[in-house]
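Apologies for my clumsy wording, but are you able to produce some protein sequence, whichever is easiest, and the tokens describing how it folds?
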Amino acid sequence: MKKIILLLCVMVISGAGGAVLFAQDHASDAQASADSIKAVAAGIAVGLSCIAGGIAVGRIGAAAMGAMSENSDLFGKALPLVGLAEGICLWGFLVALLILFL
């Protein structure tokens, strides 16, 4: 867990630093700072939602396979749950779009 947190911190710091390096292309430093913060926030929104969605799909899929091995009629009941878990990633993507373009 500590390695994951350290990796996320390094990714955030390197992403924010890269956006600041190209600040001379923008009209003002304040706009460049706001753009870099928006980019980091959008990346965090997508990244964390996709990680959470992957964990949810993994756990739901494993439980569904175990239940279907005992009763094959449960396939129709387990499929919508996997779709709901995948929807978490979609919401993260939509939030990122709202951050970037609004």
Remarks:
- The mean pLDDT is 83.
- The helical segments are 2-21, 29-70, 75-101.
